[in-house]
Amino acid sequence: MAVVLIGAVVASSGPNDGNVGAHGVDVHETPPRCLVCGQQWFLRTGHLHHLTYMRLGYEEMEDLIPLCAAHHARLHHVFDRSSQWRRHGRSAASHGIVAMLRRQLETRPAEAAS
């Protein structure tokens, strides 16, 4: 199966259930998931966040990370409003924000139980 990346749009030329591999995920083995919450990523509902725009239109899998729509919006909310995050560069900041959002998810249930 071939995966063709066109800007932020991903199209599959082979049979699968609409899953697209990203960040080293093998489409044939494990469907990709949102890197923040783990929600299964699907072509129709998932978002791909660009770590770089250097190969826009010719992206490689390591240029993109799979996110659910909500966490993609949240990542941009943080990144676009914080010169502190942007100072690290797009890729490093994106990974840092993903880690921060994960920590927030992990601590919420503990806070609710207290």
Question: What does it look like?
Answer:
The protein has 114 residues and is an alpha+beta fold. It has one domain (3-113). The chain has 3 helices and 4 strands. It has a two-stranded antiparallel sheet. Helix 1 (69-81) crosses helix 3. The protein is globular and about 35 Å long.
Helices and strands in order, then pairings?
Layout: E1 3-6, E2 9-12, E3 47-50, E4 64-67, H1 69-81, H2 83-86, H3 90-113
Antiparallel strand pairs: 1-2, 3-4
Helix pairs in contact: 1-3
Q: Could you name the key traits of this structure?
A:
single chain, 114 residues, alpha+beta, two-stranded antiparallel sheet, 3 helices, globular, disordered N terminus
> How many domains?
1
The tally of beta strands, per DSSP, is: 4
Helix fraction by DSSP (H/I, runs of at least 4) = 25-40%
Q: What is the number of helices?
A: 3
Measured between the Cα atoms of the first and last residue, the distance is: 49 Å
Structural class: alpha+beta
Largest sheet: 2 strands, antiparallel
Beta-strand fraction estimate? 5-15%
Would you tell me the overall average pLDDT?
A: 78
Poorly predicted runs: 1-27
Q: What string gives the helices and strands in order?
A: EEEEHHH
Tell me the Rg in angstroms. 15 Å
Give the strand order, joined by hyphens, for the main sheet. Answer: 1-2
Give the overall shape, derived from the CA principal axes.
globular
